[in-house]
Write a structure and sequence with these properties.
- With 180 residues, the protein is an alpha+beta fold.
- The chain is built from 3 helices and 7 strands; from the N terminus they run E-E-H-E-E-E-E-E-H-H.
- The chain has a 5-stranded antiparallel sheet.
- A hairpin with a 5-residue loop joins strand 5 (96-107) and strand 6 (113-126).
- The longest helix is centred in the N-terminal third of the chain and has 20 residues, at 40-59.
- It is globular and about 50 Å long.
Length: 180
């Protein structure tokens, strides 16, 4: 077996910075809604994109989005703004990876910057056969990484409760076609 196909031993831990992703874009007229602000669905799509890259950088295997735990729209993002997405792994479980995404808007005329949105997503690392794969633990280093990491266990417990409640609700919902 050559070096490229040799299975690598996963490290026991990694630093949050190793998973950091930055992506900056502009807001164009076709990106806005009827309020002339960035369409929320477009923002959410890019959030998932950058978060999935952070998750894969962390575990170096495929990941699936398990949940978009929160997307908090804090300020409107306008066509005069650029949008910078910054993501990093903030917590890990045995096979799950929580990613924090910070969205900063910048008025391109004034240079004023603000945190316009924040988001937490959870991914599960998966092997080629689709089974969950173990992931390295995470070590936060910066004050911001530590701040985000401090409340991760609480968010994990809330995710478990929400998932249990969602499964219970789904089991009681009809799948019958409305016209039948």
């Amino acid at each position: 077996m050559d070096e490229q196909n040799t299975p690598q031993v996963a490290p026991a831990f990694k630093y949050s910075r190793e998973s950091r992703v930055f992506k900056t874009g502009r807001v164009f007229p076709n990106d806005v809604n009827n309020h002339k602000t960035l369409f929320g669905g477009k923002l959410m799509s890019t959030i998932d994109e950058v978060a999935s890259i952070s998750a894969m950088r962390h575990c170096r295997t495929n990941v699936v989005t398990a949940s978009a735990d929160s997307v908090d729209f804090l300020l409107p993002i306008r066509p005069t703004d650029s949008v910078c997405f910054e993501s990093f792994v903030s917590w890990t479980g045995r096979t799950s990876i929580e990613v924090f995404v910070k969205i900063i808007s910048e008025n391109l005329y004034t240079g004023e910057r603000a945190v316009a949105a924040t988001s937490f997503l959870t991914f599960v690392a998966v092997r080629e056969d689709g089974t969950p794969a173990p992931v390295p633990a995470i070590i936060p280093e910066t004050d911001e990484e530590k701040l985000i990491s401090e409340s991760a266990n609480e968010r994990s417990e809330l995710r478990k409760l929400r998932r249990t409640n969602s499964k219970k609700l789904a089991s009681q919902l009809s799948t019958t076609k409305y016209w039948e």
